[in-house]
Structures are given as structure tokens and as C-alpha cells.
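Re: the 396-residue chain
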Amino acid sequence: MTSFSEPRHRDGKQNLEDFCSDYDIQPLLCMTGVPDQETLTVVAGRNIYGIPREERPDMLKNILKRHAKTVGAVTALAATLALAPAAQAQDRSDWPTSVKVGTASQGGTYFVYGAGWASLVQEMLGVPTSSEVTGGPVANMALIQSGELDMGMVTMGPAYDGWVGQSELAPGVPMHNVRATFPMYPTPFHSVTLESSGITDVAGLDGKRVNVGPRTGTAAAYWARFFETLGISADLQYGGAADAAGQLQDGLIDGFAFAAGIPIAAFSQVEAQNGANIFGFNDEQMIEILAAYPSVTEFTIPAGTYSSIDSDIKTVSMANFGVAHKDLSADFVYNVMKVVLDNNDRMLQIHATAVDTVAENWNQNGFMWFHPGAIRYYKEKGIDIPLNLLPPEYED
């Protein structure tokens, strides 16, 4: 698992959101606007990463106070911090002091979507929430099962593998510490090649070097199976979406077969800079895949999703879900559900795929126990979760 551990701009030239994220500063402090250019430069020059993480917030507050440019800024800081107890008047005794959310590689939809809702939770609930770069759904299941992550995002195919003890990361270990929370969006499988390659169909990837995303991601797990089913022998490469886009443009690989919410930023990057062929499956291939993999469903990527695509693309997709560790506070999870599902307008600002992030899509999960906090939310919306999806710890 990888997370940001070094400042992205040591000369201090970064925006306020990056500054707060890089240095793990509490959201109330950042909201004051105190970190000006001089302050950013001062902090960037400190050896902050030699200091225990739990000591950083207090140290940074002192630095910020010393380098605030105006009395008004300090006054705003004090006033904002003074409001914190009132904002937390509700009983939060069992809430976590911070939350780690597993996403996936940079350049993919999981990273954008996950970082977005994690920031929204932090903003609206006041709990420091970090988005962690991981290998994707397969890794997120394992990391939540072990308690290394509090929450995360999974595609239901790899999630089912983990649930029944067939995960490649922990074979024979049913991952029953993981609980379903909110529905996210469908993940369609599709591929991109350079326009100049002449490869316009999955069959054209036979014998080619094809990146299929991080080794523990949904794309890697299922593209290998799809290729085998279709009789395609590709030289599989692994890596993050942003890296794959760069490798494709540099001629280091011939194709990038991926699965993520659309549009995939890395695909759009290739398209904009080099010209691209973006494709799914033909009718014959669709029949074979749908027959072999009941966890996928038919999906259409609408024309116009990518600027160079003027007709619909036929492919298959899997549903995605937010998940949480079973021991995470039910009241906290309930409030996370409210943040994500009751603020769809804010979610749509994060990524267009959030059009499907609505309570009515709860039934895209048919096997994993729901978290008690999620069940409480659904009940308030008039949704009765089936008995087989209620966890052992749930009390009505």
C-alpha cells in the first residue's frame, strides 16, 4: 500500500488542499486560509517526516500561528477552532479519531472518486479522512479484513472472491470482517491503443504487450480470465493507470486494457495527446464472456464519453461498492452514508459516475453482509435489507 509520504512541492508552490493533505493538518485549521505562500515555504523546508505523525498537527499549528501574516488570520483561526466543540455536540465517543480509505492507483476513477468522498466526509463530519493509494479492490478487501484500512472501495467480482476465501492475496481465508455500505457505480471493461497502431479490437491484442492495471486490481484479475476465455495470448504487464498511459504513448506497451468508472482519465489523456482507439467487445466475444462470468453484466459506453468516440461501445461491467471494517462505529458509518448518498450534487462534482451513487442501487450487492450503520440508513429510506445480508452483530 502506498500513500503520499513526501510533500509534492518542497518550494511551497502548492494549493491549500494539497498542503492540508500532504501535512495531515486538521480540516478546521486549513479552512481558515492561514497557510499563505510564506507559510507554505516555511513548512516545506522543515523535516516534518522525521517527527512522529501524532505530533505533527500541534507542531504545524504552532508554525502556522508564528507565520500568519495578519492578526485577522490568527483571530479567524481561533474563532474557527473554538467552534469545534459545538460542531461535535452529538455523542461521538465511539467514532474513530481518523479514517483511512483504500482507493487504487493514480489515474484511475477509484483514485479520483475515493479521494473525493473521503474529503467530503472530512469536510462534513470533521474526522480526518485520508485516501490511500492501493492495488485496488483485491488489495482493499485484504487490507480492510486485516484492519489496516477502515473503509475502501471494491468491485463485486473480486469482493466475492475474497468473501468466499478465493482471493489471490489470502487463499482459503473468507474475508468476513468486511461490510458493504453504499453503492458506487458500474465499472465497464474496455481498452485503449494508439490510433497509429491499427489495433481496434480485443483480438488485435493477441501476442501484444498489454498493461492490465495493478496486479491486485479488478482489471488485472478479470482481463487475464477474459483473454483466456477468448483464446487471446497477450503479454500481460502490470502498473497504475497513469503509468500505463505514459508507457502506451512511449511505445513500451501496445495496449492498455482496464476497468474503471467512465470516462477513465488515463484513456482521455492518451486520446488528447496522441489519438486513440477505444473499444470493448464484439457480439461474439460478449456472448462468450457473459456465459462464462455471471458476475458481469452487459454494458454500453455511450457515444461521446470520449471525444473521439462517436458511436456506442458494447462491453461488460461490474458493480462497485463502498465497504468498511465490521468494527467501525455504526453511528459513524451511518453518518458517512448520509454524507455520500444525501449529497449527490456534491458527489457529481467529484466524478460523473456518481450519477449511480444512490440508495436505490443497494441491491447491486447480493452476497456481502451490510454494515449495521448502513442498514440503519437504508431503513430510514424505507429499504428493507434481506435477512441473508444482515450481519451476525446486527441488532434491530
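The first strand starts at residue 99 and ends at 102.
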